[in-house]
Amino acid sequence: MLVGGRIPRFLPFRSSSSLLLLRRREYCSAASSESSGECDEFLPWLQRKAGSEISSTLLIGFSKFGRSLFASKSIRAGDCILRVPFNVQITQENLPPEIESHLVSDVSNISRVALVLLAEKKLGQVDSEWAPYITSLPSINEMHSTIFWSEEELEMLRGSRVYQETMDKKAFIENEFSSIRPALSCVPQIYGDCKLVDFMHAYSLVESRAWRTSLGASLVPFADYLNHDGVSEAVLLSDDDKEISEVIADRDYAACEQVLIRYGKFSNATLLLDFGFTLQCNIYDQVQICMDIPLGDPLYKVKSELWKKYSLPTVNNAPGFSSSGNFFTLKKVKTGSKKGKGIPQALRALSRLLSATSNEELKAMETEAAENDGRLGRRTVKDMSKEILAHHILLAQLERAVHSHVAAITALSSAQTYNDHSRFTYRRQMARDVLEGELCVLRSACDWIKNYCLRLLK
Ligand SMILES: C[S@@+](CC[C@H](N)C(=O)[O-])C[C@H]1O[C@@H](n2cnc3c(N)ncnc32)[C@H](O)[C@@H]1O
């Protein structure tokens, strides 16, 4: 069995925080008052198409997360709550054959599935065999990934790396569209006048709802109405032998309760960029900081060479994403933790390198690396004052990031709305969630370093 994953950037897979858990009565009213009409038709339609039962315990309704799945009766932990056969999943294999031969080979899997959605959308209600599914998908106005934010809205996130990641992703999608455009123009009968904005919409739909299966990115109708809870243990599983994707309940659910699964262990920055939402308390929050050897350092050249030679790449970039400089990902450091888990060892190593003031020191670091595991600056410096200096350099860098996050959060209150006020307020709250989550991580790292230095002095 393959554990499925959502497709986004860091390959998908959320929280029993108060934000997510509506009280039971709210679920019931949401489920019963709105699960009528189009929603009631959807599951029978999909079951007919699949030729098998998909779920006997879930029904479609609406919650504040949009379309949602609710328990139609009580569910026990370990019950299989849905089973969607591969034959009703949308993958690149559903791409119209007419376009396949015109596509350049390096078009991404997500783009290919986006092209399937665009072709089906163009076929419309009458001719598309997927019409009930396609028409249920959110419109571009209902999507909140930062790739759809205005410049003014994005400005709220300038203090976070998600700002640059948004720019990178927009550039990547634009580039994909440029590669695809010639192929689209060969089959105008299928795609009509498809614009970049249509492609971005389709791309983001796939990215926010497809799962990784052995068939590549797969849209799994019905299962993709499940919303995310970062602490849920339930994920979508795929069984290649039986050719089905299924979800096993990780806990008991009372009738009418919303059923949630975990998309992945995602930070708010990732949730916002790839899915268009955030959590108020996200245990997977992290922050990326950039630390470089200052150009004005008299030992700049030697330090740069040593760093290049003895360090490993610090951040893995997904295809289509680029970064320069040394980026490090920090996670929340537990108060009282001895080892400072959450602060990358490589970041502490770079700080030790930065604290060196002579060629002799650098030579000694290089010898130590060669005599041990080949990595530079991984050990506590024997000279305590040097070890403290190295950590003070790091602390200063983190405190700068703390100050810029505090300033960015303060500025949110005075941020101006230029158009749709409710959408702006929603997005501002999400920007706040990202920045506050990152601030919390940064503060935990600062506290740990201060305590570490105090311990050294004892
Ligand atoms: C796979 S779909 C789930 C079904 C979706 N609610 C719908 O209306 O189609 C993922 C989308 O649901 C929404 N979503 C899922 N979990 C959420 C959560 N915990 N909080 C807010 N929105 C959530 C986001 O819009 C996300 O992009």
Description:
This is [Fructose-bisphosphate aldolase]-lysine N-methyltransferase protein. Keywords: Methyltransferase, Transferase. Its EC number is 2.1.1.259. It comes from Dioscorea alata (Purple yam). Strands 1-9-10-5 form a four-stranded antiparallel beta sheet, with no helix packed on it. It has 458 residues and is of the alpha+beta class. The chain has 15 helices and 13 strands. The radius of gyration is 25 Å and the shape is elongated. About 8% of the residues have low confidence. It has two domains: 278 residues, Alpha-Beta Complex (set domain protein methyltransferase, domain 1); 172 residues, set domain protein methyltransferase, domain 2, CATH 3.90.1420. Strand 3 and strand 4 form a beta hairpin. The site of S-adenosylmethionine has 16 residues, from strand 4, helix 9 and strand 8.
Unique bound compounds: S-adenosylmethionine
Our count of helices gives 15
CATH superfamily heading of the largest domain: set domain protein methyltransferase, domain 1
CATH class term of the largest domain:
Alpha Beta
- Class inferred from helices and paired strands: alpha+beta
Query: Strand order, biggest sheet?
Result: 1-9-10-5
CATH architecture of the largest domain, by name, is Alpha-Beta Complex
The helix-strand sequence is EEHHEEEHHHHHHHEEEEEEHEHEHHHH
CA-based shape: elongated
Strand content: 5-15%
Strands, count: 13
Q: CA-to-CA gap between the ends?
A: 53 Å
The value of Rg in angstroms is 25 Å
EC number: 2.1.1.259
Protein name: [Fructose-bisphosphate aldolase]-lysine N-methyltransferase protein
Enzyme class: transferase
Keywords: Methyltransferase, Transferase
